[in-house]
Design a protein that fits this description.
4-stranded antiparallel β-sheet, 3-stranded antiparallel β-sheet
Amino acid sequence: MQITLVRSQQLPALRALYLASRRAAFPWLDTSGYALSDFERDTRDEQVLVAGEGAEVLGFIAVCPPDQFVHHLYVAPDRLRQGIGRALLRAARWRYPALHLKCLVRNRRALLFYRAMGFTCLGQGTGAHGEYYWLALMPAGGR
């Protein structure tokens, strides 16, 4: 598996992965309005790292650089629990030593993953899709 900055030829696969992953991850939400075109809109001005094997796109992470905020981390639904998300987070940490994100309270699988990766809860809030935890992964030394 290789992790690279997003390339234009990967966009069709990323659009499809993003749509399928969100539908699978959030069964309690109304996803009928989700579209393939959401990927570009939702990752605009973010640094996108893509995990792939050959031409196959396995997952991606999108980080808002100024805040080191992980806006998206998705892995193809049929490739979960294979270390892809872990590898993407590690690659993002090379670029951004302190990462922050919001994770929906109802997204139990993601919460378990982030806790296993060392994220800690800084607080809780409510957004358009429900309650969320504000999580952080700080560099060694806690800065």
